[in-house]
Design goal:
Layout lengths: L13 E2 L2 H10 L2 E8 L2 E11 L3 E7 L3 H7 L3 E14 L7 E12 L1 E2 L2 H15 L12 H5 L1 E7 L2 E7 L17 E4 L21 H4 L4
Antiparallel strand pairs: 1-9, 2-3, 2-5, 3-4, 4-8, 5-6, 5-10, 6-9, 7-8
Length: 210
């Protein structure tokens, strides 16, 4: 653990097991990436996928994130899943159950075959099986897209689970306490209005879960 990744607030919630870090990243597909431009910090949401010990970030070639990587700006990327609201007997002890990962590092813009492979990775990580159904990307489409690699060498994770941790003097209060769980579910696929007749929904979409 480096100074960048040391957890100072509630360090007991820190997780160093890389398999847990990987699992948190694999469950999501939208991250928030922070960078510096013209002396000010900027945060943007973007699609991502984990590929081994790295993240692949996807976006427009004209986006500020890509320009920042070209100029050498460091990156910080955050992924968070909220699993529930922790309803305590006091406002101070109320919280949320969550799993979060923060990655620090220097991004690298992928080019050529690496870039094309990175795009395929993002597509198939977000929707497994989808890439095989799609036509190949054109050179123009690839040129308009940025693919950024970010190593997971500088990474930290925090997890909070369970019920409220109320103070002993609050335990006799006639105030409800507990957890309101959250769950993210994929709905049934909805076909486009202009879909060609006779096309069934692919199996990988019918069984899609996140």
């Amino acid at each position: 653990m480096s100074d960048k990744t040391r957890i100072r607030r509630l360090p007991e919630r820190g997780v160093e097991d890389l398999e847990v870090v990987y699992a948190i990243l694999d469950e999501g597909f939208v991250c928030h990436a922070a960078y510096l431009t013209e002396g000010r910090p900027v945060v943007v949401p973007t699609l991502y996928a984990r590929d081994g010990h790295r993240l692949i970030l996807h976006g427009s070639n004209a986006m500020g994130l890509a320009r920042a990587v070209r100029s050498g700006s460091p990156l910080s990327v955050a992924v968070t899943h909220v699993d529930g609201l922790v309803v305590a007997r006091s406002a101070f002890n109320s919280s949320a159950n969550y799993r979060s990962v923060v990655v620090h590092g220097q991004g690298r813009l992928l080019e050529g075959d690496e870039k094309a492979a990175g795009l395929d990775i993002v597509i198939d990580k977000v929707l497994p099986g989808r890439r095989a159904d799609l036509r190949p990307s054109t050179e123009k489409e690839i040129a308009q897209t940025s693919v950024i690699e970010l190593s997971l060498d500088e990474v930290s994770a925090k997890v909070r689970s369970g019920g409220p941790g109320d103070d002993p003097e609050d335990m006799e209060l006639e105030v409800w306490a507990g957890v309101v769980p959250f769950r993210l579910e994929a709905g049934d696929p909805v076909p486009a209005d202009d879909l060609l007749p006779g096309l069934d929904t692919p199996d990988y979409l019918e069984r899609y879960r996140r």
